[in-house]
Design a protein that fits this description.
heterodimer, A: mainly beta, six-stranded antiparallel beta sheet, B: mainly beta, four-stranded antiparallel beta sheet, 11 strands
């Protein structure tokens, strides 16, 4: 918008200068400054600098709605504190972009064990235990293998250890052992492993044993959030057999 | 530094010429029309934008590219509505930042407790459960019942069985598809002198399924292994099914 200032000129040489002549000059200047006003045409390009604008005077009300567009934002300028709490909802996440490295660590807890269970009459002997603190999601429990060793839960005649051959005159035809998992003092898992048979008939001279993979013990527990100790136990029901457990009790929150 | 400097060509008691006032006029016009005003003609902080600028007149085209920097943005000012969908990609998420609390709840379904201590003939359905998935793999397994007890056992009610080979199995189905067979059995050479019993952990029944997204029904049924007879055997089984979608 063109905005020229023109000072009124009513005088000339050899004329008597009247008060009105100067009044017109003054009036035209006052009118321009006071009424017409100064606009872009009167200001140099880049003529205004930040220091001409009062601090904190460009308030939100001065900004048009949606005036801050993507291009106005400097890259990486929206830092974490700038995001409102819980601002990132599902639709804001690009599909398949939460890759595994973005997840917190699995936080698995594990404990190796190799325990001989003496023969007895049902007393529960701890094979291993593990403690885990959860946020309230289900907990997966299992007894995976130890590296490079056979991980088993087994029973055999007194004196038996895995991989040995024992002849026991006291062996019976019936063998069993029971596995338990406790969460604290609460029993959450029970499984009995049993072999009753008449074969071979000559129990007094044959080694009998039951061996199962430790990995066959698995459980999903769904406690509320908290810190829990899971304990794997074994109990025998006869006095002529001893048991053994070797493996690793593993717990992780889903 | 444009300054208005008005030449003074007149003095007291002199004849005032036209040119004397012309310089006054011209110099004023020149500043405002040609030289133009710049920042020196405005006081420091002389323009109070909050009162001098009309509300909502600073539009996006007025704001320079990259003009809004971190320090310009108020804390927590970027709300959900300000983020475009799909704006948060891998690079925006800190490693390890997605904690369990940020994940949706585990999609886990427990079946009802089942218990049957004398299944014969085989072919009965022990348990079913339905789970609706998003297309991710599903773990399906047997665990102890809600009291923590379980059983997976074959046995002969008779202490004098005549058969020597005994096999039964559980079959885990996903809708109409067989996921896996879980046989349980033994063979003896001298049957007939005691009740035969063979019992292993129920949690040996474990499968990994990769179904399409949608509702799926898993079932656990008993079955007979082809070529065997179960006339003298019974299956005793107790526990419950559980299925969850792997995150």
């Amino acid at each position: 918008m063109s905005n020229p200032f023109t000072m009124t000129k009513n005088y000339a040489d050899a004329q008597l200068l009247l008060a009105d002549d100067l009044d017109q000059m003054a009036f035209s200047l006052e009118e321009f400054i006071n009424m017409t006003g100064i606009n872009d045409d009167n200001i140099q390009t880049n003529g205004l600098v930040g220091s001409n604008i009062a601090t904190n005077s460009i308030t939100a009300a001065k900004l048009a709605s949606n005036s801050i567009a993507t291009t106005n934002l400097q890259d990486d300028s929206v830092t974490n504190p700038k995001l409102a709490t819980t601002a990132i909802t599902t639709v804001k996440l690009k599909d398949s972009n939460i890759i595994r490295s973005k997840l917190e660590a699995l936080g698995q807890q594990e404990s190796n064990f190799s325990t001989t269970v003496p023969s007895g009459s049902g007393s529960q002997v701890t094979l291993g235990s593990v403690t885990i603190t959860t946020t309230g999601r289900p907990v997966f429990l299992t007894v995976p293998a130890l590296s490079y060793t056979s991980s088993t839960l087994d029973v055999g005649p007194n004196g038996y250890t895995y991989g040995t051959s024992v002849t026991s005159s006291g062996a019976t035809t019936n063998m069993n052992f029971t596995l338990y998992i406790f969460r604290g003092v609460t029993q959450i898992y029970t499984a009995t492993i049993r072999r009753n048979t008449a074969d071979p008939n000559s129990a007094s001279t044959s080694e009998r044993k039951i061996t199962i993979p430790s990995g066959s013990v698995q459980m999903i527990d769904s406690p509320t959030s908290g810190t829990y100790t899971y304990t794997l136990k074994m109990a025998l029901s006869t006095t002529t057999y001893n048991g053994q457990g070797r493996g690793r009790i593993l717990a992780y929150e889903l | 530094m444009p300054r208005l400097t008005i030449p003074k060509n007149y003095n007291d008691a002199e004849v005032l010429f036209e040119a004397d006032l012309d310089d006054f006029k011209d110099s004023t016009e020149e500043l405002l029309n040609d030289t133009l005003l710049d920042s020196d003609n405005f006081q420091l902080e002389g323009i109070t934008a909050s009162t001098k600028i009309v509300n909502a007149t600073i539009t996006n085209s007025i704001i320079a590219v990259d003009a809004i920097q971190t320090t310009t943005i108020d804390s927590a000012a970027v709300t959900t509505a300000k983020l475009i969908d799909d704006s948060v990609g891998t690079a925006q998420v800190q490693d390890g930042a997605v904690t369990r609390a940020k994940l949706e709840a585990v999609n886990i379904v427990y079946g009802s407790d089942f218990s049957n201590s004398s299944i014969n003939p085989v072919g009965s359905t022990l348990s079913t459960l339905s789970i609706t998935t998003t297309g991710r793999p599903v773990i399906i397994m047997c665990v102890p019942d809600s009291s923590g007890d379980s059983n997976f056992e074959i046995y002969t009610p008779s202490s004098t069985p005549s058969q020597s080979t005994f096999f039964m199995k559980c079959v885990l189905n996903s809708d109409a598809t067989t996921l896996g067979h879980f046989p349980l059995g033994t063979k003896v050479s001298n049957p007939g002198t005691t009740n035969e019993v063979f019992q292993i952990p129920l949690s040996s029944i474990f499968a990994f399924d990769v179904p399409s997204a949608g509702a799926h029904t898993y079932s656990l049924v008993t079955s007979l292994i082809s070529g065997t007879s179960n006339s003298e055997w019974r299956l005793s089984i107790k526990g419950r099914l559980v299925a969850y979608e792997v995150m």
